Amino acid sequence: MFPRVKAFLWNDSAHRLRLPWRLIALVVLLAVLGLLTSLVVTALATRPSRAFLALTQSQSAEQTAVAIRNLLFVSTQIVVIVGGVYLAGRFADRRWFRDFGFRVDRSWWADLGFGLALGGALMTVIFAVELLAGWISVREIFYVARSGFDFWPWFFWGLLTFVAVGIYEELLFRGYLVTNLSEGFTWFDRIGTRGAIALAVLVTSVLFGVAHATNPNATLASTVGIVLAAVMLAAGYVLTGELAIPIGLHTTWNFFQGVVYGFPVSGTSNGVSLIATTQSGPRLLTGGAFGPEAGLLGLAASVVGLVLTVGWVQWREGSIRLAKSLVVPHLRVSGDE
User: Fold this and answer.
1) pTM of the model
2) Cα-trace Rg, the chain
């Protein structure tokens, strides 16, 4: 009985937990870290440090409170997700953290630059099309929703927020989940390597869509749009084995969408934008109150982004191949640091 139970839980050849239990270990770690950080955040939110208050003493009390709350929220997300993936990767997966998409070299930075440029360009085209079609009108420049708040500090805070979101969401959904599921699905002989990676992308993209399905103004169309956007983001990862393209693309897609052009970002608004607009076009095309991702323009941008990502990898590497590291892991050995 014991050997069967052990074989069900443990992979003797790899000396680690099997896939389902590795995923459960990640969920447990995220929950524990989330609980611990929430306790810390509660303490800090009720008794903000004198040093932080000194840095914000020129701002209103309301701005200070909002700044503290935002900083704690973003910091918590980074600690929980990055920390959870690191711990699960090291002790459950026996992987190096860098193998989740952070083997940083010159090519990595070039791919990041491409992703950053692509996300901004795609959202700029959407804005231009809607403006030329008369579906949006510009009502204000340097817009801040809260009266008395300074524009530039919150504009740059929006940038930092979306950089953080780009990093931790890509690390979790593409870096960790696509990698683990791709390797795990190869267990089924009939699927093969390509099928395993494709299935991993599909599953994680659906999960990504479901994760946004409870956002304000979400609809079935918005969920489908988010799923397709996730496929676009995954393309850069499965073709290079690195998160540079997805992180860059995710960051500027959100930043230009919300903080530059004033569209809702997946149904939400951070209350500051370089350009504030009034939406009046057909929801089927524009996405309405959820933002472009719920409309046909957003779907088209995702398809174009996918094609351009494939073209970039083809141009830079001279061929299109799925990253071998997704299905053949470089595992730690005993004593590795």
Assistant:
1) 0.91
2) 21
Segments making up each domain of the chain, as ranges:
1-94, 101-326
Say how far apart CA 12 and CA 311 lie, in whole Å.
Answer: 41
Question: Which amino acid is it at 319?
Answer: S
Tally Cβ neighbours within 10 Å of residue 189. 6
Q: How far is CA 24 from CA 83, 84, 180, 332, in A?
A: 15, 12, 12, 20
Q: With b meaning 16 or more CB within 10 Å and e meaning fewer, what string describes 24-58?
A: ebbeebbeebbeebeeebeeeeeebeeeeeeebee
Q: Token pair for residue 155? A: 């504009």
Distance of CA 229 to the CA centre of its chain: 11
The CA distances from residue 288 to 191, 244, 269, in Å, are 39, 30, 13
The amino acid that residue 333 corresponds to is V
Picking from 311, 170, 301, 293, the residue whose alpha carbon sits closest to that of residue 227 is 293
- DSSP designation for 268: B
- Could you tell me the mean pLDDT of each successive run of 10 residues in the chain, 337 residues long? 68 80 94 91 65 52 74 89 95 92 96 98 98 94 87 91 96 96 86 92 97 94 97 97 98 97 92 92 94 96 98 94 87 58
The identity of residue 184, as a single letter, is: G
